[in-house]
Amino acid sequence: MSSGLGNISWRAVRVWQRNWTVYCATWLINFLAPILEPLLFLLAFGVGLGRLVPSVAYGGLEIPYRVFIMPGILAVSVMNYAFFETTYASFVRIYFQKTYDAILATPLLLEDVLAGEILWGATKSVLATAIMMVVVSCFGLLVYPAALWLIPAALLGGLAFASLGMIFTGLVGSIDQFNLPIFLLVTPMYLFGGVFFPLESLPDWAVNLAKLLPLTHLVIVMRQLALGRVDASLAGSLAALLVFGAACFVLALYLLRRRLIK
Amino acid sequence: MSAANVVYAEGLTKKFDGLAAVAGIDFQVGRGECFGLLGPNGAGKTTTVRMAACFLPPDGGRLEVFGLPVEAHPRRIKARLGVCSQEDNLDPDLNVLQNLLVYSRYFDIDRRTARVRAEELLGFVGLAGRRASPVLQLSGGMKRRLVIARSLINRPELLILDEPTTGLDPQARHQVWDYILALKAGGTTSLLTTHYMEEAAALCDRIIIMDRGRIVIEGRPAELVRSVVGERVVEITGYDEAEERFLRERQLYFEKTARRLLVFSGRSEESFAEITGRFCRGGCTLRMANLEDVFLKLTGRELKE
């Protein structure tokens, strides 16, 4: 029973299918949050804050604040859906429901299960992005066809943040301890990842610090694609997400094998 | 190994944090056999079957299932196994039928075959009427039956049952026994752990008793009873020292509990008449010896944990 990437097979899809079956049973509830979320943000930032900050400078242009902020909100959802799926939801499946225990009695190996779960976390990001895109398109906040690239971007971001979440599932002792990475990692990224204000408005040291956060890169990617204004920084941010995601994925596999297979 | 062995273990060892949970055991399970692993809590039974189910990698020795080493071929072995784990691990997010259908996908059973088998198995375990029930609404006995049905979805050649009836009421327990016996009649090999002696006696062709990671004894249940404790036991309630002295003088094997003396017949049936004639003022029971007597004699009466 060697470990690592070599143990992943196409059977990972079976785990994805299991989660899809469960998701479909309650699809209405699952759809509700991504429909309402952008509407709430539009209300708060369009009607509320938008009165105070009518426009922001982005890429040499003045654009309405709600147009600026919406791609960032999409990126935050990508992070949250993936991260919460592979932390709380996966934790419950592993340690409370013993779902993995049952699956491991079949031809699947642990790495298949983890790959399937991470793929599922990313799928939730993609589904949420797609639903939110429909909603915000009604307000003319996306530029097509470039915005269609948001879907693969959500998949990449989803894989990265799902892998990040899985690392903590391999580390925490109890489900309450997820508060720590949320407080120390997710919330700071939400606040300082360039969602609410343009990074260019910050001093250099703060920009450099922000570029260490994976969400910053996802925001850069998704904003450029959503607004159809792509520049050279896109490639760098895509590469950063890819490297970050791959590193998290390998580490998550290692930590969970160490923890679950004694 | 010989081709007839479904499970072959030699010098099998497993350590947790340097402590040997399984300390070099040898056993073989033949095709069509029901093989029991008995022992007190912490004896290493579950660790042993979890290694056979490719959950845990062994630390030493050889372990082959279907002639394949467990380390090298977990997927191929698991495809032919059915596993009923000790803990209930049904999928609570799915209903009864979905539990079987989703599980069948892990084995790559096509949808149509899976449907037919799932209905067949729900009939077998008497849950056909509950196919749409959420798992959380099932009683403990129903859950266990569903776990058994689920473990059969891939038509396993070897069924691994880890304490299949722990926590069940007597009705449910006997039902589970009936399923296992029906499967055995159909040729399924099974490897089961239990600490219910009557369960082992009712189901198993052969057993091993384990204690502290080692095998204490191996054999057929009835033969073990005869050879270790003899045919019959007298239980003497309210004994005094005179009785103990008498038993020592006659060199009869007996055990002392807080309130009773258990005297085993061994080879000397004639002493029994004398005991009943002379002592038994406080009450005596003569009964058939059973596997529990063997178990307690070999693994001791003190608590293990």
Automatic annotation (TrEMBL), chain A:
Entry's localization field: Cell membrane; Membrane
GO molecular function: ABC-type transporter activity
Superkingdom of this protein's organism: Bacteria
Keywords tagged on the record: Cell membrane, Membrane, Transmembrane, Transmembrane helix, Transport
UniProt-listed PROSITE patterns: ABC_TM2
GO CC terms in record: ATP-binding cassette (ABC) transporter complex
Broad class of where this protein is predominantly found: membrane
Stretches assigned to the ABC transmembrane type-2 domain: 29-259
Transmembrane segments: 20-45, 65-84, 126-144, 150-173, 180-199, 232-256
Membrane disposition: Multi-pass membrane protein
Family: Belongs to the ABC-2 integral membrane protein family.
PANTHER family linked: NODULATION PROTEIN J (PTHR43229)
Name this protein carries in UniProt: Transport permease protein
Organism: candidate division TA06 bacterium ADurb.Bin417
Taxonomic lineage: Bacteria, Bacteria division TA06
Name of the gene encoding the protein in the UniProt record: yadH
